[in-house]
Amino acid sequence: MCFVSACAGSTGSGIKIIHFAIIWKYLCASLKRIFLQPLSVFSIRINQISIDYKIIDLAICYFIVNFFMVLAGGCVMVLVSNVDYVTGMSSVIATLMNIGPGFGTVGSSENYAHISDIGKWFLSWNMLVGRLDMFSALVIFYPSFWRT
Fold first, then answer.
1. Beta strands per DSSP E along 1-148
2. In terms of C-beta distances under 8 Å and separation of at least 24 residues, what long-range contacts does 77-84 make, across chains too?
3. Structure confidence at residue 5 (pLDDT)
4. Pick from 123, 128, 130: which is nearest to 81 by CA?
5. Quick one: 21 exposed, middle or buried, by C-beta within 10 A (0-12, 13-18, 19+)?
6. I need a labelling partner for 106 at 20 to 30 A (CA). Which of 82, 114, 115, 138 fits?
7. What are 90-130's pLDDT values in tens digits?
């Protein structure tokens, strides 16, 4: 449930409820188009306002990037901190989604003291990415951002 964490406009991290609503409506419309009415055109609407396909693409991209960051971050934590994958994954989820305790050795009765320094820096970066919102934090990796 920590992936579903905030409403639109909130500074909470994780995947916003509106992204799930857009993706769900897009999935339902795609399944209708594929299986029931292959020649029809469906419009994705929220509050009777048609959603542009660029917004739908961004919502899907945000969803995929979020899961990729959790999976890749879990692998990074296993490599740099010598923890099991459950602990590595849950530490990344806990810091990226800003929820606090995780599972394994970073659970509610444990702490992050045994994590290596590189692992703590990585988890701190995840906290920053989670709080600032993923796309605004990842834009620093685009070369066009650094051109004046």
1. 4-6, 15-16, 45-46, 49-50
2. 77/115, 77/119, 77/122, 77/123, 80/116, 80/118, 80/119, 80/122, 81/114, 81/115, 81/116, 81/118, 81/119, 82/116, 83/114, 83/115, 83/119
3. 64
4. 123
5. middle
6. 138
7. 899 888 887 777 788 887 778 888 899 999 999 999 888 88
Say how far apart CA 110 and CA 142 lie, in whole Å: 37
Residue 2: predicted pLDDT: 66
Largest CA distance in the chain: 58
Stretches where the chain sits below pLDDT 70 are 1-5, 8-13, 148
Question: What phi and psi values does residue 70 have, to the nearest 5 degrees?
Answer: -70, -45
For 115, residues 6+ apart whose C-beta sits below 8 A from its C-beta are 77, 81, 83, 91, 106, 123
Its pTM stands at 0.77
